[in-house]
Amino acid sequence: MKHIQKDIANEPVSLKSHRSTPGATYDNCNKEDIRQALLKEQGHLCAYCMQRISASLDNMGIPMMQIEHYDAQSQHETLRLNYKNMLGVCRGNKGFAKHLQHCDQSRGNQTLKIDPRDAICENLVKFDNNGEIYSDDAIVDNDLNNFLNLNVRYLVDGRKMAIDEVIKNLNNKYKKKAGQKWSKGDLQKEIKSWQEIDSDGMYQIYCQAAIHYLQKKLQRLP
């Protein structure tokens, strides 16, 4: 999970205007504007699983992403049109068997402790070298594994591929003689490359799993 810096300056003008209109509801607001703002803010990654998300429509005319209300609409009516309460998420295997659903499809209206809008999320969420996501905080670990179901097999495999890509990049960029380790400088450069957005405003998918792997390597150096 990657920290999302929510900034009211990113709020679509149409949403501000709509909110001040008598009788305004979430159902009749301009969701396309909201989706575009969330994509830009999140680097085109799902707020929970870090898959690529897009506002493009599928062959049924349905957007390839959803707008998630972190504090559920059913429980927090006053936050329904609050941009800071909105996150862009993937469709979470909607329509598949329950055990294969993840992110907000799995979560439903469960209250979470882990919050991608809070910078501390990057310290609470960890990844092992095989791509499994976990936390040393028992409540957060329950959020990740049970409420959000982020260890669905294909998500684990995707994060493992990102970690493998890190190792490949390090070996290709900073070739070492037998027995030599990557230096602090090597690791810091690679971390920076995974923290940056590309020319299209996108982060690399599963970037935080890669960054966590690199940070663990960095911490072990003298």
The share of residues in helices is 25-40%
Structural class: mainly alpha
Mean pLDDT: 93
- Uncertain segments are none
The biggest beta sheet is recorded as: 2 strands, antiparallel
Q: Going across the biggest sheet, name each strand in turn.
A: 1-2
Radius of gyration using CA atoms only: 19 Å
Number of strand segments: 4
Separation of termini?
Answer: 28 Å
List the total number of helices.
8
General form: globular
- Portion in beta strands: 5-15%
User: What is the string of SSEs from the N terminus onward?
Assistant: HHEEHHEEHHHH
Q: Main traits of this protein?
A:
globular, two-stranded antiparallel ribbon, single chain, 222 residues, 5% strand
How would you explain this protein's 3D organization?
- By secondary structure, this protein is mostly helical.
- It has helices spanning 13-19, 31-42, 104-107, 121-124, 138-147, 153-173, 184-195, 207-220, and strands spanning 66-69, 86-89, 126-127, 133-134.
- The chain has a two-stranded antiparallel sheet.
- The longest helix has 21 residues, at 153-173.
- It is globular, with a radius of gyration of 19 Å.
- It starts with 12 loop residues before the first helix and ends with a helix.
